[in-house]
Structures are given as structure tokens and as C-alpha cells.
Amino acid sequence: MKPKERRSRIFDTIRQEGRISVDKLAREFNSSAETIRRDLNKLSKTGKIQKIHGGAMLPGPSGEGPYQLRMGENARAKRLAAQKACELISPGDTLFIDTGSSTLFFAEEATQIPGLTVITNSAEVARVLSSSENGASVFLLGGEYNSDNRETLGPMTILQLDAFQANHVVLATGGIDAVAGVMSFDSGEAAVARAMLARTENAIVLADSSKYGRIAPYVIGRLDQFDHLACEVEPGQLLKKALDQSNVNILC
User: Fold this and answer.
1) How many CB atoms lie under 10 A from the CB of residue 135?
2) Could you tell me if 116 and 92 are in contact, meaning their C-beta atoms sit under 8 angstroms apart?
3) Rounded to whole angstroms, how far apart are CA atoms 112 and 114?
4) Residues 120 and 148 in one domain
5) With left for phi above 0 and alpha for psi between -120 and 50, is residue 135 left, alpha or beta?
């Protein structure tokens, strides 16, 4: 395993565990304790983790609350979906990215793509991509601030989207269903996602397999409004057939 991939997996493991020892990481990744310590040093310098005696944990207050808990759920699946979505992005592209644990994984992977312009309502997505060494230009939309999800929402956020047009929109989802389409559990987040969807050429939805067939109360869009589904495993027969009929490209 390459060092970059190992560090990515270590980070995801810390997200899932919250706190973990060097010895446990060394066993899990079949590496020496010294190698793990070097990896933790590099992750610590980026602010992603906090080193503690004998191990590491998620940093400070940002490691608390429902949003951070979601980051630890199905982390490997979300990472794989994010990597597939990045295959659709070219250097210099303009992207809308909404708020979600899956889109934050995407933002972390997208730091490898040079010259991006990103418009987002997620303070975390903005933080990750603005610190990219590849020169991303990031616009953080204003509006009412939600401290739990670290996002902006509401009419002011949607109004500011009128100033932008993007090559791609990358959206998280609370659920994706053969009949209901792509959905969210938050009405404000769904409204921002719909506004982004209306101002782009290419629509990408990120969904790990836990979202298949799951119903959420607020519709973001019909399946035929999307161009690609990025996922870690193919959906079941019913959803796959609906996606095929809607000309949605499945990337697994």
C-alpha cells in the first residue's frame, strides 16, 4: 500500500473510532509503529487529527456532534465513491459542491486536481479545498449559518448562486430511490442542492450503498436530472434498472 493511501485509510479509521492507539493501527495496517507515527505526524500537520500519547484522535470541538459522527459512518465506502467521482473532473473545471459527509470526502480527494474553481455552502469543503496545494479558487456562499453541519442555508445562499455557472455539481444524498429520486433529510439543504442542480452542465450524486432505496422527506431531483451516480457497489436490480432508464452512468 502506498503511503498516501495508507494515510487516507488511517484518517478514515480514526474517524470511525474517534480515538485509536499506534499499536492498533500498526496491527491493522501491517506496518511498524514508527511508520504509523510518521503517518500521524503528517496528518497532524494538516490539522486533520490530533496526536495524543500512544495514538491519535479527532481534533478539538470539530470532532464532536452529529456531522462528525456521520463522517465515521461507512467511511471506506464514501471514500471509494469520492474517488470514482473525481475521475469525471478535469483540471480547471468549475464545481458546485453541497454540504455532506460524502461531499467532504470528495473535497479531500479533489485536492489532487489542479486549478479548480469551487462554489460551496460548506465551510468544511471550503476549508479543505482552499488549503489545497493545487491552487483551488474557492467561493463560500453566505447565508444563515448552521454550526452543526458548518454550512450556510436559506434565501440569501440561493440568491448568491445566481452569480455562478458550473461544469459539474457534486451532491450528497440522504437517500436514492427508483421512484422518488434523490432526496435529503433537510429542507434547507435540499433547496440549495436544487438551486445548484439548475445551474450546471453535469450532475453527480454521491451515494454509498446504505442510501439505496432509502426514503427521505425532501426531493432534490428526479433520477433523470442526474448524469452520474458515484458509489462503492452497484445498486440492486430495481434501482439499477431505473438509473439505466434515466441514462444515469453508474460509477462503482
Assistant:
1) 10
2) yes
3) 6
4) yes
5) left
Are both 130 and 235 inside the same structural domain?
A: yes
Residue type, 158: I
* 99 and 55 housed in the same domain: no
Q: Is residue 103 domain-shared with residue 14, that is, in the same domain?
A: no
Q: Which tens digit of pLDDT belongs to each residue from 77-134?
A: 999 999 999 999 999 999 999 999 999 999 999 999 999 999 999 999 999 999 878 8
pLDDT digits (tens, 9 = 90+) for 166-182: 999 999 999 999 999 99
How far is 65 from 99, CA to CA, in rounded Å?
Answer: 15
Query: Does 193 score more than 60 pLDDT?
Result: yes
Per 3-state DSSP, the chain is made up of helix, strand and coil in percentages (nearest 5) of 45, 25, 35
Q: Three cell numbers at 224?
A: 433523470
Do 142 and 36 have their domain in common?
no
pTM > 0.85: no
Give yes or no for residue 61 having a pLDDT over 70. Answer: no
Range of the domain at 7: 3-62
Domain total in the chain? 2
Residues of the chain above pLDDT 90, percent: 73
61 half-sphere exposure, CB direction, 13 A CA radius: 4
**Pairing mode, if any, of strands 117-120 and 137-140?**
parallel
DSSP state of 125: H
